[in-house]
Amino acid sequence: MSNLLEVSGVSVSFDGFKAINNLTFQIGSTEMRAVIGPNGAGKTTFMDILTGKTKPDEGHVYWGDKPVSLLSMSESQIARAGVGRKFQRPTVFEDQSVQENLMLALKNNRGPLAVLRFHPSRRDHEQVAKLADEIGLAKVMSRKAGELSHGQKQWLEIGMLLAQDPRLLLVDEPAAGMTPAEREHTTEILVEAAKTRAVVVVEHDMEFVRRLNCKVTVLHEGSVLAEGSLDHVTRNEKVIEVYLGR
Amino acid sequence: MVDITSAGAPTRKPFVMRYPSVAIFLAILSLFTICVTVLGEGFGIGVVSTSFIKTLGKTLCLCLAALAMDLVWGYTGILSLGHMAFFGIGGYAIGMWLMYARTEVIVRESLSAAALPPTPQEISDGIATQIFGVVGASEFPPVWALAHSLPLQMAAIVIVPGLLALVFGWLAFRSRVTGVYLSILTQAMTLALSLYLFQNDSGLRGNNGLSGLQNLPGLEAVPQSQISILFFWASALALGLGYLLCAWVVSGKFGSVMRAIRDDESRVRFLGYSVEAYKLFVFSFTAVICGIAGALYYPQAGIINPAEVAPIASIYLAVWVAIGGRGRLYGAVIGAAFVSLLSTWFTGGQAPDVSLGFFTIQWVDWWTILLGLSFVAVTLFAPKGIGGLIDRFTEHRSPERHGADLGPDAGALREKEALE
Predict the structure, then answer these.
(1) Are the Cβ atoms of B402 and A118 closer than 8 angstroms?
(2) Rg for chain B (alpha carbons), in Å?
(3) How does pLDDT run across A169-194, given as a tens digit for each residue?
């Protein structure tokens, strides 16, 4: 299996503090991966690097079948190349309806002139309706996103992410603020998504990670501490010491 | 709610039918134009004076500029405090031709008395001496190279503001300058332009500016009362078309992206939209609208000088939009029309002084303070501006229920019946 993403020897420091230290990471094109680690382990910075928000001081990030470097691309170029990100705090466009939010995210030409002439086709409408159904928001399509509950916003953001149809999904704490039933549903969606694309889930909740049933990468002080199945890493002495033992 | 920002239904109706506020606006504008024509001196019964018609025509141009400001600020969240610079450039561009062509007529007349027919050089020198005598020059500076041609100067109305906005915007947005820093930068731009124009050797007559713009070359026989109506029509047409165009831009997915950029620009980047390209597009597009508005405004004002592009003018533009209601097109128009007409009334000395016994409020001086206070009050207490009143009215009349029951009972009136 060829790798979709290869991160090698990446380091970044903020005012002398090494947030990421010689990090190496690979993920295949149809793989689910959970990233865990204590606070300050560099999980968010790691995502920032992948999405172009932060430029590393050294190291390489290669992407795709014919590997290209992500480091020379802007955030929007990276997103168009197929990296989708879900933030910890749900960030949807509160002043716009659920329908508009989904339409905005739907995979289509992103150029200003194309968008100016854009008119949603029947297929676009169908896809939006299908997504809305999948995330359980079909009944509130014309409500403004700001009126939704916290959990519904989480769903909307997941829906927007799926609408983008990315090749790599970066998901930051997807289950935060969800009921057990909703967690179940989230797990299903993520597992389903991982059949056709790569999914990286950052999560604190061990129970949720266990349910994802995938390879786990443990980050600590900006580098990989352990990697393997959940049972494997939870037996690791170092992991227990820095993360689980306390 | 008749707000054009609400989601368009998938069914395809004509554009103005899908957005009632656009149809209502165009109807009111047409009605207003007809009333003014009938009441004016040029073609009607002459109840309204020519100078007031000019004021109304100018107000329509300001409304067009306010539309542009609303697009850039209300919808995209870029608080540009320099858009009146583009307005002024449009005015200068048309003013150069007006002044050149008008002076040419005069020079030709005066030289026709000579024994020999004048050479083109003599005519050109004559015009230059006439125009630039006030700043002690007698030759055409390079910027006037195209002033003899109406089509070329008309092209300049669009191209010069557009190009300036493109270059300025590219530099600013590429460096991710946002918020208050961008506002300061745009203020600096308009201040620099104004200071440059104040210089006598800028080639645009320094602080004298361009004058006599109300006299249209070739239309000397037509009285001002009729010319004022013609310009009023042109301004109304420009405002109507501008409104339609802006409504079209903000109603679709492009408008959705604009509002998304205003609310959370980094999120828009992560969706794959190049925020900089969008901002640049909106900034330049609105600069062009302002240029056109300015080109229609100054022939009605009759004079343009560098003070017109001073930073305060652009701040007024922002105040109008804020008072009228940001993020809704009719709000910008209402704000610009209401505040600028009120301002004309107060500063024209028509408003009665208020005597407090120990102190007399003279509105000519105190109007700016009143305006400033109302700006603060609107920002604090009614962020939706005057347009917010319309929301209250329309929501009261037809609540947006999307076909849901009006009452708990299944037999209750449905939305459709209730609206009849």
Answers:
(1) no
(2) 24
(3) 999 888 777 888 888 888 888 998 89
